[in-house]
Amino acid sequence: MSSAGRVSVSALLMAALGAAALPGAHAKPHEPHTERVSTTSTGAQLDGPSHQGVISDDGRYVAFYTKAAEFGCRENTYTCLQVKDRATGDVTAVPGAGGFSWAPPVISGDGRHVGFTSGTKVPVPHLYDRATGATRPVLPASDPEASTGEMWSVSRDGGHVAYGAGSRPRPTQRLYVRSMATGENDLVSGEADGVKEFASLSADGGRVAYQVRTAGEDPADVFLRNRATGESVHVDKGLGEGRLVQLSENGRYILFAADGGTYVRDMRTGRTRRVADVPARSASRDVRHAVLTAAEGAGDGLTLLDLRTGRRSPVGPGRAVPGAVTAKGGAVAFTSEATDLVPDDTNGDSDIFVRHTH
Fold first, then answer.
1. Do 139 and 118 form a contact (C-beta atoms < 8 A)?
2. pLDDT at 78
3. Bridge partners of residue 242, in order along the sequence
4. SS in 3 state form for 204-253?
5. In what order do the strands lie in the sheet with 242-247?
6. pLDDT in the model for residue 296
7. What separation in angstroms does the CA of 96 have from each of 159, 176, 296?
8. Please, what is the end-to-end C-alpha distance for the chain in angstroms?
9. Is the dihedral of CA 234, 164, 275, 59 positive or negative?
10. Structural domain spans, the chain
């Protein structure tokens, strides 16, 4: 769909669909199609690359990094973090997010809060509230050695965040969960456990899954911590090097990659099952839908897998990060250099696309 076509129908679609996913002007309702979202508020393509797109549960808000000249993001080597409202077309710059893109952004399920890691010298985790316009750093004042860190997860309502904290040259030696209402920081995993690489929160913040890197034959492991009881479970035990993808909002299921494939662990029954023979990169917050990479040697195509039915839907060539799938798997945000996904893609740069799968 052309940029002009998207703008011309925007007002009509707003009234009809509200916060629902917006189809392209030439697509029938519920028909699979691809939309470019890294555009200006008028729908014009950007002069500069964009990458690492994440999407709210209803598909209305997409946050992404960009070096687009239209947003003044070409100074030095720094990027800008923008939030696109697909219902209105408005693009909002996230205050305080200028600098290097140290890690992918994260967005709350309701689309109100955007977490990011910013800084020109060292990475520092922050949380932006779209409703108030305020950006807050989240490093714990009680930990004088925590001068750097990385934002990893925001609960659905933005009430809790999970992030790594430490000091140079290891900014993620410790894992914290912070209550944004009280400012309390709970130390989940300390320096002795190994360097933390990623984390994912349940909706209430009571459970946190995280990935740890250590020395030895099994250098990466996935754990689940119940913050109320203090109990920890080694999720990927016996499967070699593991990589965390997503903890479900109810805290019951963990999706992770290991042994060249993708697994789901049911924490209630203790059962672990292999659901795909290629690694997953992202998943919906209920862990029903997962974005899979292509098989080795098969290119860079992404596929959306419905774990309940086994249905597979093509997404497109490109890359996806955690937080790239809507609540019901109806849309996937991804980065691609392909020029044939939408009409009039002539900027020669990577863009953020949303694939509507049904």
1. no
2. 81
3. 258
4. CCCEEEEEEECCCCCCEEEEEEECCCCCEEECCCCCCCEEEEEECCCCCE
5. 242-247, 253-258, 261-266, 272-276
6. 61
7. 20, 21, 39
8. 17
9. positive
10. 3-356
Give the DSSP per-residue string, 41-103.
TTSPBPSS-EEEEEE-TTS-EEEEEE--GGGT--STT-BEEEEEETTT--EEEPTT--B---S
Q: Are strands 195-201 and 185-189 parallel, antiparallel or unpaired?
A: unpaired
Q: Rounded CA gap, 356 and 315, in Å?
A: 8
The reply to whether CATH 3.40.120.10 applies to domain 3-356 is: no
Q: How wide is the angle at C-alpha 34 spanned by C-alphas 33 and 38, nearest 5°?
A: 155
C-alpha 184/C-alpha 236 separation (Å) is 30
* Cα→Cα distances 236→26, 242, 304, Å: 45, 6, 23
- How does DSSP classify residue 319? B
Pairing of strands 253-258, 261-266: antiparallel
What would the two tokens of residue 78 be? 């720094």
The mean pLDDT values, 10 residues at a time, for the chain of 358 residues are: 38 38 48 96 94 97 95 77 97 90 93 94 94 95 90 96 92 95 95 95 97 84 97 95 97 96 97 97 97 77 96 96 96 97 96 95
Cα separation, 162 vs 227, whole angstroms: 12
CB-based contact 103:151 (threshold 8 Å): yes
Phi-psi region of 84 (alpha: psi -120 to 50; beta: other; left: phi over 0): beta
Question: Of how many residues is the chain composed?
Answer: 358
Q: Which residues contact 101 (CB under 8 A, 6 or more apart)?
A: 51, 52, 65, 79, 81, 117
CB-based contacts of 246, cutoff 8 Å, min separation 6: 200, 254, 255, 282, 283, 284, 285, 287, 290, 322
Question: Is there a contact between 23 and 31 (Cβ–Cβ < 8 Å)?
Answer: yes
Nearest alpha-carbon partner for 189 in 210, 168, 206: 210
Question: Could you give the CA distance from residue 84 to residue 193 in angstroms, rounded to a whole number?
Answer: 38
